[in-house]
Amino acid sequence: MTKPTLETIFEKRRGVSRIEVRHGYAQVHVSRIESKVMEERLRILTAVADAEVSIDFLKLTPTGLSFMVPEARAGAVEEALSQTGVHYTVRSGRSIVLVYAVNIRDEEGMIASILRRTIATCARVDHVGDMHDRLLMVVKTEDVERVVDQFRTADEELEIAVR
To answer: How large is the average pLDDT for residues 67-91?
Structure first.
């Protein structure tokens, strides 16, 4: 049997194959909006846009919203939100950890396994989201190395990228 060439290798192995870490974020959480929630969300997002701050990972909550911003722009977001009169928190020192696993949604228990291993590190996880091939977690930056080590010790072939 001949060894497959790069052109014929198209299937990735099952399980966690790669971890990517992105440092330098702050998490913004706006809460306690009591009435006209949709209008208030739009007003808040307009204030952030007017401050020329790009957001990532927008999540809507029953009484507010949360999103990520570059840590270097957290001050601009705080200034913009302070003028809106809404209740908010800005948590600096956050990193995004992307855990890649083929067919993550189709592999029974895969997401739960990744989260169980992450929680076992006692890391502070502020946000979780999934895509077809990865799980995204917002983690306190000082906890990232413990999370990565948890996966590194379980799998020597793991690719790790830090930006």
So the answer is: 97
Q: Judging by DSSP bridges, how do beta strands 87-101 and 16-31 pair with one another?
A: antiparallel
2 pLDDT higher than 60: no
Give the pair of three-digit tokens for residue 3: 């060894």
Phi, psi of 98 (to 5 degrees): -105, 120
Q: Does domain 16-22+94-162 have CATH number 3.30.2130.10?
A: yes
**Distance separating alpha carbons of residues 115 and 104, to the nearest angstrom:** 12
| Whether domain 25-92 has CATH 3.30.70.260 | yes
For the stretch 115-154, what's the b/e string if a residue is b when 16 or more beta carbons lie within 10 angstroms of its beta carbon?
eeebeebebebebeebeebbbbbbbbbebbeebbebbeee
